[in-house]
Amino acid sequence: xxxxxxxxxxxxxxxxxxxxxxxxxxxxxxxxxxxxxxxxxxxxxxxxxxxxxxxxxxxxxxxxxxxxxxxxxxxxxxxxxxxxxxxxxxxxxxxxxxxxxxxxx
Length: 105
Prior knowledge:
The chain is an alpha+beta fold and about 100 residues long. The protein contains 1 helix and 6 strands. It has one helix at about 5-20; strands spanning about 20-25, 35-40, 60-65, 75-80, 85-90, 95-105. It has a 6-stranded antiparallel beta barrel with strand order 1-2-3-6-5-4. Strand 5 and strand 6 form a beta hairpin. The longest helix has 16 residues, at about 5-20.
């Protein structure tokens, strides 16, 4: 079995155990679909302006990139727990996973 296949199995196991549901809506009009992702801790604290609405404006969501068609890209929409986010960046790894950088929209 190849290393990529093993990483794919590991990603699937971790997502099944710790993942949360999200709704992915691509810009291409192909329709919304349910995906599973894991919210990662931010790389650094997010600054807030005094009086700003509480909550996190930027979210890092780990997903199994190879299982999502069409592939997420900048400008797509993701809903998590009723909050709407826009994909602002996609960081794909070589084992089939990706971290989607989302901004509250």
